[in-house]
Every structure is written in structure tokens, then in C-alpha cells.
Amino acid sequence: MQISKEEDAELERQLKILNKFPVKTIHTEWGDIIDCIDIHKQPAFDHPSLKNHKIQVPTHILFSFFIEHEPSNFMFDGIECLEGTVPIRRTTKEDLIRAKSFSKTKNSATNEQKINSAYINGAYINLEDDDKRTKYFGASANITTYNPNVGEDQFSAAQIWIESSFRPTPFNSIQAGWIVAPPLYKDHLTRIFTYWTGTGSPVTGCYNTLCPGFVQVDRGLYPTLPIDHISTYGGIQYYVNIAVNQDKSSGDWWLSIAGTKNIGYWPKALFNSLGEGADSIKWGGSVSLSEEGISPPMGSGHFPDGHPKHSCYFTQIMYVNDHYELVNLGDTAYKEILCPRYGLTITGYVEEQGNTIEVGGPGGNCTR
């Protein structure tokens, strides 16, 4: 990709912001370089809205429940950053170039947030009040981990969307889940990912920690971390718990993994409409088309058939209502399937698994 001198200078400026002086550096077995940065000097605080921000501690943790079957382990060497420091994946110029192109592809949605576009397909359930007067303050699910076979210009994800698009305020979004995305990471690993935007534009948001904004607090788990244990079709099923919850006192949106493991948060100051809760929550899968218009596999690569070891399951689906109560999904959500090469089944409430959906498909040409 050709870039101008001005663009190159801007990339160098961004790198100086993102790559702080490390207290310790970890060279991982999967090729990433992780810098342990002073928690008070991390890139998040270079955001103009966070200049005087003080690191928060969550006061209302609502997501704390068991994970059935086998929880996924993260591909971390058993090395944690020292007390007072946090792990930040080192960013290269190539990372920023790829991320810019990837963001244009994955987030080419309208303010009405139809992820359907020339590039995106998906299958998800949507919890949304028609008049957008009902607010939601968190979402969670246990998500089966898979490693779908995607092309070099494709991605495949299983995720949660937290959104607010009530006009006239700009579109706000927080996304979290797992993803296989060679265009973003230059590999085919299944990784934890996050994304945020305060205006519907990559200019005011980014993936993971590729821009100031997300405040990292955990010393071991962080966005972009690969997932080591992957489910196999018909074999052992591994799950990862993903939760995004707005703190009642501060209004910050917290990312939690494995129930109560608080990874970090998006401060309320990053958003306008999401500062007062979300008006839409989605759970499901999203994928991108190749240049030839072909969609990759989603989940296990198989259509849902009711078998617990055959497709990507979302179990223990819960949300936080406008009374800040953690509640089961119930039957209020509706499903949307944007391509016939994927399927989604709302299983309903299952004993010991809570509210459940299964999603996936082989991909292919969505116009046929």
C-alpha cells in the first residue's frame, strides 16, 4: 500500500503515542511483542478527553457466574507484567496501515447499524426497543471458541455489540469477542478483540489499543491475546466468557473475561449517546467478503443443527436492564441473518446453560 510523506509522518506521530517506554518487554512465542507500561502512562491517556483521568475501580460487578464445559485458556506464557504496569501490544507502522484499511471494511455500517454492506455479513440476535426508549447497561455470554478457515482478505468473528444510534447523536459502538482476522493481525490465530467508536468513524475509535481510549488495568489479560484452546467439530468444546458492563457510578464501560476478570474499560468521556446506556445489544457472528464476493466460514463452519458440539454456541446470554439488574435474555430479542450461507437458531432457555443461541455456516456466495 502506497502512502504519502504526510501520511507517513502521521503514522510516526501515532507510533510515538502508542509505543510508550516499557518497564519490561515480553517476546511471545506467537510473534507479538508485549510491552509492560506504567499503568498511569499508558496510551489511553493521550486521548484529549482523558488528560486528567484517574484510573477507576469498578463499583458494580454484575457478571459473576459459572462457565460450563471447558473454559478456554489464553496463550500467555505464564508471565505477568509487574505490579503497577500493564501489557500493551507493541504497534508497528504496518499494524496501523492494516488497521486503517480493516476498519473501513468491518465498520462500513450506517448509523442505523445494519452491519449488512458491500463487505459485511452476519447472523445475530438483536435486543432493541422499537422506539429506542429502553436502555441497556451491559451484556454477557459464554461463546464457543473456534478457528474458522478464512482467506488473507477476510475475517470471521463471534461477538457482542453494545450500541447507541438514537438520532441526532452520532452512532456509538463497543464490540468485544473473538476474531480470526489476517488483514488486522497478519496471522490466523483466534484472538480476543475489542472495538469502539464515539461517532461511527474510525477517526474517533479503533481496534484494541491501536489508539488512545481503552484503559488497560489487568496485568495479564489484554485485547489481541490469542486463545489457546479451540473447539473442534464433534469434539471437546471450549468457551470464553465475554462481558461488557457499564458501571452505575462512573458510567465507564468495563470489559470482563471469565466472569469477574476485569481487563479494562472505556471511559464514559469517550462517548456521547453511550454515556447514558445503550439502545441496542447484539449477540452473534460477523464476517467479511473476499474481493471475489465470497464469505468465509462462521463459527465451526457448519449450520446449527441442535447438537451442542456442532456449531458455535452462545450460552448464559444475559443483559443489564434499566434498573441495573442482571437478567436472562428471555424471548424479547429477534434474529437477523444477512446471508443464506449462515444460520442462527434461538434455542431458548436450557437447563444449566441459560438462554442459548447457536450460530454458524460454511460461507460462500451470499447472492445465490
Automatic annotation (TrEMBL):
Domain Neprosin PEP catalytic: from-to ranges: 117-367
Pfam families membership: Neprosin, Neprosin_AP
Domain of life per record: Eukaryota
Database matches in InterPro entries: Glutamic_endopeptidase (IPR053168), Neprosin (IPR004314), Neprosin_propep (IPR025521)
Protein name: Neprosin PEP catalytic domain-containing protein
Organism: Macleaya cordata (Five-seeded plume-poppy)
